[in-house]
Specification:
The structure holds two protein chains of two kinds.
Chain A: H1 3-19, H2 23-26, H3 30-48, H4 52-89, E1 94-98, E2 104-108, E3 117-121, E4 130-134, E5 136-140, H5 142-145, E6 151-154, E7 161-162, E8 167-177, H6 185-194, H7 202-231, H8 238-248, H9 251-270, E9 273-275, H10 278-286, E10 289-293, E11 304-310, H11 316-328, H12 333-345, E12 359-361, E13 369-374, E14 378-383, H13 385-392, H14 398-409, E15 412-421, E16 424-434, H15 441-450, E17 454-458, H16 463-473, E18 477-479, H17 484-496, E19 501-505, H18 511-516, E20 519-523, H19 528-533, E21 536-538, H20 545-583, H21 601-625, H22 634-664
Parallel strand pairs in A: 10-17, 10-19, 17-18, 19-20, 20-21
Antiparallel strand pairs in A: 1-2, 3-8, 4-7, 4-8, 5-6, 5-8, 9-21, 11-16, 12-13, 13-14, 14-15, 15-16
Helix pairs in contact in A: 1-4, 3-4, 3-8, 4-6, 4-9, 4-21, 7-8, 8-20, 8-21, 9-20, 9-21, 10-20, 11-12, 20-21, 20-22, 21-22
Chain B: H1 3-34, H2 40-49, H3 59-82, H4 98-109, H5 119-122, H6 125-155, H7 165-190, E1 200-203, E2 209-212, H8 217-226, H9 247-272, H10 275-301, H11 306-311, H12 323-336, H13 351-362, H14 373-392, E3 398-399, E4 402-403, H15 406-432, H16 435-439, H17 444-459, H18 474-504, H19 520-551
Antiparallel strand pairs in B: 1-2, 3-4
Helix pairs in contact in B: 1-9, 1-12, 3-4, 3-6, 3-18, 4-18, 6-7, 6-8, 6-14, 6-18, 7-8, 8-9, 9-10, 9-12, 10-12, 10-13, 10-19, 12-13, 13-17, 13-19, 14-15, 14-19, 15-17, 15-18, 17-18, 17-19
Classes of the chains: A alpha+beta, B mainly alpha.
């Protein structure tokens, strides 16, 4: 965003900021409430005894309050706009409810109850959150995800969840409503992006306690100053005390604190993740164990055939051709990859088409094989070694076992191809299917390790295969042959060791683990049970996003810490501006503390207040964008941030106040 | 021997001896509080007190025990002081007035040992021995118990208890303070400190008889320093020739002050099984101590006032047998711990030297702090530092595997708040009242510093006086007593509550994403937090006092 765009955006939010100048809402932010009280007191003083410096102080104190509100208003702006567009999609829908006897009755979407069954056809809006129990349909979810490509939703499996407010594009589905009206995903999403349901997060509360105690200390400092000063023969006008107090209390972080929280949630929304609470975003920064599903996260979803390994006595062509025939009608990605490999290896070979009366045998969980029955009683099967062996009715030869074992150790999946025909039943060889690790994963895991995050790959594969892939991808640990209870156990174990766990999941059987994880990211494509259990929903259904989520969580905490440090460090320079101004008349020797050589006491005090207000304005973009987070060890991150915000916080105000003084001192009655 | 050489030799000797005893004493203290067995004497004491020594206490029970014990001690000591006329060996002195008795009782029970009276002309030997000396032991032991309870908060996980106050108190007294105090007393006697039960008459240089004041001085002196108490037997405290006769006893006194607070960091390392953390905390303490010592010594040695030029050095208010270096050392050590014994008049120090000594107390006496209180004070500062730094690395802040959330931060914030509010309110109220001006010994900035120093000393349980200020009015007696009492007990209760919260937590593992709380970086930031928080809170007051004086 350019400076000009930013300025325009700020101006646009000015009315909203002004509306927030209300003590009834301000008191929730004690630091800014003190500033408000100070502004009122200074205004009264300026009205009773008008003077250039008093009036200028009053104006700048009010600006301090307004700038603080502006930060919040700007942070809320994007959410408000998004909420409005979501509301538009929640237009009154009429549902067609299916009664016990199968008849359909029209009912308002708001009148639907959990357990109701509705029928939705092409062109209709799904009236509420639920699971598809019959049929399959393509659904346009762009209203929620912003993604225009339609998605498939079907009964059974992990793609059965539908969201109210989305539109069925084709076919007809029957949906069982799982969420009561008013608490649907859309409703919650509106509340979230709008910030109406925003609660302070644990770290935010702890930080507020620190800010509150700093405010109390500085309040005591200012309160006890008049008797000390009067003994020294110095006067302490109310407006000067107010100026000192406002400059000392941590207004910078106090003004920006809530904006930082809102912006953190908003950054999640920008990467299309919906965090159900700020607490979840914050927990993401603390995560120290990341459970990642192998398929789709670490490896690209599908395995690919990379080699044909014929047994002795079987020609390479023979195996390739048999495997190709068995896969021609197989529409799975693996099957297609076998055909692709076969065609690539023998581009010139006469391509045998599948005979018309061939019968395709689909994969089933019981047989664990697929294949084809050709005319002439020839049957070809491909599948897991044990399954094909059983089908062949023969024990595996040493050679076959050796090949199978070698592929598995390598992280691949061996697919044994067998043929039964008039010549007998024989194993022909093995197709080597390989998991393809996504590019760049090794680097990302290395980054995570430096951040102190342990990655655990979760997979249903056997241990040998799993470990090979883990080595290739560079994850720290593997949970092989994992069942949903295994996942839950792992989470419990990690948590018992004091670690915070993040995971992704989409199936109903992931729900317990998602609920147990500190950060459970449900895929939007998943079942509603999964979405209900997690505390975040990834609208893009992209499991690699966990890594971004962790970074955003950390960034939010870093921004808070950095601005707090900056705020406190600023006080040193403000003291050097205001204290000599207050006491130079009584003790001329204190002129030595006027390090910045500010022109007059009035100008010094006003400059400090102006700086204090402008710093808030200047830091709004940083609060919204977040402090830049480069993954690294805690020590390196700390060193950098201390240098920038600690040391910077000490030095910047000396320069800033001096510059402002040079301008302010031109004002008549001040300079 | 030149003053500089003597000073450097003294400092060198202190460093050598402390380095030699650091490990054995530190580990011994860890055993004192860890062992499960009880001696026969201890069992007898527990039986008399109706205490089950093997039962642990919840934080609340522990805190109630501390408060009840302190309350009983205050009342008992007040009664003893007010009724001393009825006691044997009272040198026919009358009972002490109620306000002085209250102030003194509170002051000795809280390990402050602020003295608004002159020992030799106010108290009999029984009041000194049975009253003050006993409290010197017990108040130091209470400090130890609180520190040990906080350390248990870090070492335990999923625990509801933090130890047994009565057991910790008895052990700290009998196994640690008593044996070392006996050794210290013998050494002091050997060095010439008085130890008898009557004044003696000697023949002076003119031939006329001179009454030499006597008393059980060495025995009380030893624990006065070892327990970082600081209340002198005589009004002149460690500047008195019978309390601290030679440069050698002066060296011994500095050693006695530092030995437990410094070695306690070793105890921490042993109990935590984390030496690096202990070294880091020791490093911060020593850094602050050395910095204050360098500044004060430099200020005193290079003093440019007319009197200093005439005398060849800033010797006003200093004993010639100690010199500038040893006086600066004693002043820094006594204010960096919660001792408050003095071997020179702080009132007469240069503005900068006096200011540093004052700041030493205002930053909460953590360089290295009082017996026990220094360690828990530094751990509280470490938590504050961890909170700021932890957020800056993007994680919920953790210290030693314990997360610092809302309840923990509440305890730390209130702890940090307590002493500044007491000092500033006390000073502010005193300055607002006209009689204060008459109580001041000096006009201008120096007079203001005297008042600020008094409340800083009281609220931080130091007990040293800047001098000059007359604090015998009921107003000062009572307000200083209040500042002293709250300045001790409120932080203790908060520390125990925190210990309970920490003990209840599990232990988070350390990863490379965890902020390392050991090593030079963290030590540097902790030092900065101590100085910045102290400076920001007291800058206006310091500007009106020592800073204005130093600049003019």
């Amino acid at each position: 965003m350019t400076t000009r765009e930013f300025a325009r955006m700020m101006l646009g939010q000015l009315p909203a900021a002004l509306r927030k100048v209300d003590p009834r809402t301000l008191w929730r932010n004690p630091v800014m409430f003190v500033v408000w009280c100070g502004s009122v007191a200074t205004s009264v003083a300026a009205a009773l005894d008008p003077g250039v410096s008093t009036i200028a102080l009053a104006v700048w104190l009010w600006l301090t309050v307004i700038f603080g509100n502006l930060a919040e208003a700007v942070a809320e702006r994007r959410g408000k706009a998004q909420a409005d567009s979501l509301r538009a999609t929640r237009a009154d829908t009429t549902a067609r409810r299916r009664a016990q006897d199968g008849t359909l009755e029209p009912v308002a979407a708001t009148g639907l109850e959990v357990g109701d069954v509705v029928v939705v056809e092409a062109g209709e809006v799904i009236p509420g959150d639920g699971d598809v129990i019959e049929g399959i349909a393509s659904v346009d979810e762009s209203a929620i995800t912003g993604e225009s490509a339609p998605v498939i939703r079907e009964a059974g499996g992990d793609r059965s969840g539908v969201t109210g407010g989305t539109t069925v594009l084709s076919d007809r589905i029957v949906v069982r409503i799982t969420t009561a009206a008013g608490q649907t995903f859309l409703d919650r999403m509106i509340a979230l992006v709008e910030g109406t349901s925003r609660r302070k997060t644990p770290n935010e509360v702890a930080l507020e306690i620190l800010l509150l105690s700093l405010t109390a200390v500085f309040g005591t400092v200012v309160l006890t100053l008049p008797p000390m000063a009067s003994y020294a023969g110095a006067s302490t006008p109310l407006v000067v005390l107010v100026a000192l107090l406002v400059c000392l209390i941590p207004t910078t972080i106090g003004a920006l604190l809530s904006a930082i929280g809102i912006a953190g949630m908003d950054r999640m929304v920008q990467v299309n993740v919906l965090a159900m609470s700020g607490r979840a975003v914050e927990a993401a920064g603390d995560v120290s164990t990341l459970l990642l599903d192998k398929t789709g996260t670490i490896t690209i979803g599908n395995r690919e055939a990379v080699d044909f390994l014929p047994l002795t006595g079987v020609g390479a062509d023979e195996l390739r051709e048999a495997a190709r025939l068995a896969s021609l009608a197989d529409q799975t990605a693996e099957g297609r990859s076998i055909v692709r490999l076969a065609d690539r290896l023998a581009p010139d070979a006469a391509v045998v088409a599948l005979p018309a009366d061939a019968r395709f045998v689909e994969f089933s969980a019981t047989t664990r094989m697929s294949g084809v029955d050709l005319p002439g009683d020839v049957e070809i099967r491909k599948g897991a070694a044990s399954a094909v062996q059983a089908w062949l009715g023969a024990t595996a030869t040493h050679e076959l076992e050796g090949i199978v074992e070698r592929i598995a150790t390598d992280g691949g999946t061996p697919l044994v191809v067998g043929r039964a025909g008039p010549q007998g039943r024989v194993a022909l060889g093995v197709v080597h299917l390989k998991d393809i690790v996504k590019s760049g994963m090794r680097e990302r895991f290395e980054q995570l390790r430096r951040m102190g995050i342990r990655t655990v790959m979760v997979t249903g594969d056997n241990r040998l295969t799993a470990e090979a892939i883990a080595r290739e991808a560079g994850v720290d640990d593997v949970l092989a042959e994992a069942t949903p209870p295994d996942k839950l156990d792992l989470i419990r174990r990690e948590q018992a060791g004091g670690r915070l766990v993040a995971m992704t999941g989409d199936g109903t059987n992931d729900a317990p683990a998602l609920a147990a994880a500190d950060v459970g990211v449900a895929m939007n494509s998943g079942t509603s049970a999964a979405k209900e259990a997690g505390n975040m929903v990834d609208l893009d259904s992209d499991p690699t996003k966990l890594i971004d989520i962790v970074a955003i969580g950390k960034q939010m905490l870093i921004t808070r810490g950095a601005l707090t440090t900056f705020s406190i460090a600023n006080d040193v320079a403000k003291y050097f501006a205001i204290l000599p101004a207050m006491f130079m008349a009584a003790y001329p020797a204190l002129a030595g503390l006027n390090l910045m050589r500010l022109s007059t006491p009035e100008s010094a005090i006003l400059s400090a207040v102006v700086f204090n207000a402008l710093v808030i304005l200047a830091l709004i973009p940083l609060a919204l964008r977040g402090v830049r987070f480069r993954p690294g060890t805690a020590e390196s991150v700390l060193r950098r941030n201390l240098l920038v915000y600690g040391l910077g916080g000490l030095v910047v105000p000396f320069v800033g106040i001096k510059l402002i003084d040079m301008i302010v001192s031109l004002l008549p009655g001040i300079g | 021997m030149s003053d500089t050489l003597a000073g450097l030799l003294t400092i060198g000797a202190v460093v050598l001896v402390l380095a030699a005893v650091y490990v054995p004493l530190g580990d011994y203290m860890a055993r004192v509080f860890e062992r499960t067995s009880h001696s026969r004497l201890e069992r007898a004491l527990y039986r008399v007190g109706g205490v089950d020594p093997d039962a642990e206490q919840s934080p609340r029970q522990y805190a109630v025990a501390v408060l009840a014990f302190s309350g009983v001690c205050v009342v008992a000591l007040m009664a003893l002081l007010m009724g001393q006329a009825a006691l044997p060996m009272s040198r026919e002195l009358p009972g002490v007035g109620w306000d002085t008795a209250l102030n003194t009782a509170v002051s000795f029970v809280t390990n402050t040992n602020w003295q608004s009276y002159a020992g030799e002309s106010t108290l009999g030997f029984t009041a000194q021995m049975a009253g003050l000396a006993v409290q010197n032991f017990l108040s130091a032991a209470v400090g130890l118990t609180v520190a040990v309870a906080l350390v248990r908060g870090f070492t335990r996980s999923h625990a509801g208890t933090i130890g047994n106050f009565w057991v910790d108190l008895v052990r700290g007294t009998l196994r640690l303070l008593l044996p070392i105090a006996v050794l210290g007393a013998l050494a002091l006697m050997a060095g010439g400190v008085v130890q008898n039960l009557a004044d003696t008459t000697a023949t002076g240089v003119t031939g006329a008889p001179v009454v030499v004041p006597g008393g059980p001085v060495a025995s009380q002196e030893s624990i006065k320093l070892l327990g970082t108490n600081g209340g002198g037997f005589f009004n002149a405290n460690s500047a008195h020739p019978l309390e601290n006769p030679t440069a050698l006893t002066n060296l011994l006194q500095v050693l006695l002050i530092l030995v437990i607070p410094i070695s306690l960091t070793r105890t921490l390392g042993t109990l935590l099984d984390n030496r690096r953390q202990a070294r880091t905390i020791l490093g911060v303490m020593l850094g602050l101590l050395v910095g204050a010592l360098a500044l004060t010594t430099w200020a005193e040695v290079t003093a440019q006032s007319d009197a200093a030029r005439a005398a060849g050095a800033a010797m006003e208010g200093k004993e010639s047998r100690f010199g500038v270096w040893a006086s600066a050392l004693f002043a820094v050590v006594t204010t960096g711990t919660s001792t408050g014994a003095v071997n020179a008049s702080h009132d007469s120090m240069t503005p900068l030297g006096g200011g540093v000594v004052l700041l030493n107390m205002l930053i909460g006496e953590v360089s290295p702090g009082g017996v026990g209180s220094g360690l828990y004070g530094m751990l509280m500062v470490s938590i504050l530092t961890v909170f700021l730094c932890g957020l800056m690395v993007g994680r919920t802040p953790e210290l030693l595997g314990k997360r610092i959330g809302k309840p923990e931060m509440t305890c730390v914030a209130l702890y940090t708040l307590t002493s500044p509010v007491l000092v500033l309110l006390g000073t502010g109220v005193a300055m607002a009242l006209p009689p204060t001006l008459d109580a001041m010994g000096n006009p201008g900035q120096h007079g203001f510093t005297e008042v600020l120093y008094a409340y800083a000393s009281a609220a931080n349980n130091n007990g040293s006086a800047f001098g000059g200020l007359t604090v015998t009015s009921t107003f000062f007696q009572v307000t200083l007593a209040i500042a002293t009492l709250l300045g001790r007990l409120v932080p203790i209760v908060l520390v125990l509550m925190l210990a309970g919260r920490l003990a209840r937590q599990g232990l988070a593992p350390r990863t490379s994403g965890t902020l390392p709380t050991d090593g030079p970086l963290f030590a540097g930031v902790t030092t900065a937090v101590v100085l910045v928080v102290g400076a920001l809170t007291f800058f206006p007051a310091l500007v009106l006092g020592p800073v204005a004086e130093a600049l003019s």
